[in-house]
Amino acid sequence: MSEHLEAYYGLPEEVKFCKRCVISNQRPSSVVEFKNRGTEKKPTIEFDDQGICSACTFADMKETVIDWKAREAELIELCNRHRSKDGGYDCIVPGSGGKDSAFTAHILKYKYGMNPLTVTWAPHKYTEIGWHNFQNWIHSGLDNILYTPNGKLHRLLTRLAFENLVHPFQPFIIGQRLIGPRFSGLYRIPLVFYGENQAEYGNNIKENDRPTMAPSFYETTRDLDSLFLGGVSARDLISQYQVDPRDLNPYLPIDGSVLREVGTEVHYLGYYLKWDPQECYYYASEHTGFQVNVERTEGSYSKYSSIDDRIDPLHYYTTFIKFGIGRATYDAAQEVRNQKITREEAVALVKRYDAEFPSKYFHEILEYMGITEERFWEVIDQARSPHLWEQVNGEWRLRHHVY
């Protein structure tokens, strides 16, 4: 009888890898959670009877099932309904000036005749190339509001998210998800465009059947006892960490009555236009001056994806620790689905880069979070799920590999 090994985070105990790409069934659905769900079982990417993941299944549907001409006609009709007649802003595009938001905002303005207001939730710490691309994005002919949250609070939430959830990116993800609907309410602009739905990469495939984001992603109760940030209730942030309640507002769900009055609709451009991250890069490079990094990203072979925030590499390292899925796996899996590389090439890239430690900005991010290197490794090692990790001769090793 095989040894029973505990699986943290509600993950499946049996590890399986997609037969088509390189993702495993340990990939969790990425959702913004305002409540503390503890160890409650969370949905992960689904596999069919042939061992193919839902993201690969949807990639096939994009090629064979979806009528993209009809979808584009829907987009044109949507834009026609909302297009400004007096020169005002008629849609909001959240983004950082990375390849995806650069593509989204630019094509809406210069191909479909919209007048977008771009809004940016600032990264924790800009990289040089990230700031450069952000400036190029604006200077390609777009208006922008850069929203930078309270630095003292953001550092605290980042540290708490790392120590309690091993998820230092959570405060950024919450802000990024909320900023579009929030500015819709503030400026009374009903139409919001994000790029692709995360169902492209493994969330519930049925989410791709609708063009809009479910309001539950950005609207919910603002009760301070049931809202959690960084694994701590909003009430405790106020009482135990001396957080001013007013400073929490950018991270709190939006009052749905305001958005319903405005008529806010949050759409995914990837529902209407066939989404391909590499093609977005080519478009952004040509039209907005987007530039790749001069060196590959730590933990992967890529030079153009998620390169604007110095904490990005650490975020992907934590997914490697928690789920056995590093940055190279994410990058290679989507490039297999988009027929840029073969599965054999993807396996080799995962083997070479997935476990690489992000050392370049490591000490800078430790200082940002206000923790020691000793505390960092304590959190990391406690986060290793027994069903994924084992110690061999005093060193940690994954039990399962796609290769």
From TrEMBL:
Protein's name in the database: LPS biosynthesis protein PseA
Organism: Geomonas paludis
InterPro entries: N-acetyl_sugar_amidoTrfase
NCBIfam families linked to this entry: WbuX
